[in-house]
């Protein structure tokens, strides 16, 4: 829901950049977690 609010206020390109930044952060978190939970690496690679 918040995505559509950001999209309508700031525009498509800005909203996509915010989402991509979140994906990068999640990838780093999963790779760090993979040392303890092997399934996390598979999730990070998806």
SSE diagram, text form:
Layout: H1 2-10, H2 12-33, H3 39-45
Helix pairs in contact: 1-2, 2-3
Can you summarize this structure?
83% of the residues lie in helices and 0% in strands. It is mainly α and 46 residues long.
Mean pLDDT, rounded to whole units? 76
> How many beta-strand runs?
0
List the quaternary state of the chains: single chain
Order of helices and strands: HHH
Give the number of helices: 3
User: What distance lies between the first and last C-alpha atoms, to the nearest angstrom?
Assistant: 24 Å
Rounded to an integer, what's the Rg over CA atoms? Answer: 14 Å
Summarize the biggest pleated sheet: none
Low-confidence residue ranges:
none
Shape: rod-shaped
Helix vs. strand class: mainly alpha
How many domains make up the 3D coordinates?
A: 1
Helix content: over 70%
Q: What is the strand content?
A: under 5%
What does this protein structure show overall?
The protein is mostly helical. It has one domain. 83% of the residues lie in helices and 0% in strands. The protein has three helices and no strands. The chain has helices at residues 2-10, 12-33, 39-45. Helix 1 crosses helix 2 (12-33). The longest helix has 22 residues, at 12-33. It is rod-shaped, with a radius of gyration of 14 Å. The two termini are 24 Å apart. The model has no long low-confidence stretch (mean pLDDT 76).
């Amino acid at each position: 829901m918040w995505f559509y609010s950001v999209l309508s206020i700031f525009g498509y390109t800005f909203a996509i950049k915010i989402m991509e930044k979140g994906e990068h952060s999640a990838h780093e978190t999963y790779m760090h977690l993979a040392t303890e939970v092997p399934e996390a690496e598979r999730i990070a690679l998806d």
